[in-house]
Predict the structure.
Amino acid sequence: MSERSDPRQALGRDAERLAADHLARAGFDVLERNVRLGHGEIDLVCRDGDVVVFVEVKCRRATWGDPPAAAVSWHKQRRLTRLAQHYLKWRRLEGVRCRFDVVSVTLDADERVGIAHVRGAFDAIE
């Protein structure tokens, strides 16, 4: 199935765009989107003052039950931590302060969007 015909991928792209717009309105500088590294992808890399923020975007329909942020498991947190370490090294940003945030995008039955931003959603996991 091609990416264009996959409604889940289209929903994910839309959610990432909405999350980036939300963060920009909140004063974040959105540095990069969909950063692909060897073992995965970082949805958004932002700057909040002097802090580099790695953002995981989760999208769900309200009828799916759990809030989107609940999908950021310990394994996902560990993978994001490793990706962030690779990113910082790649961009020569060693020693900078960083943080992991989660932005949840929820669509209700009427296609209304709810956005929740969790700052410091988890700490780096080694």
Summary: The CA atoms of residues 65 and 106 lie 11 Å apart. The chain has a mean pLDDT of 86. The first strand starts at residue 29 and ends at 37.
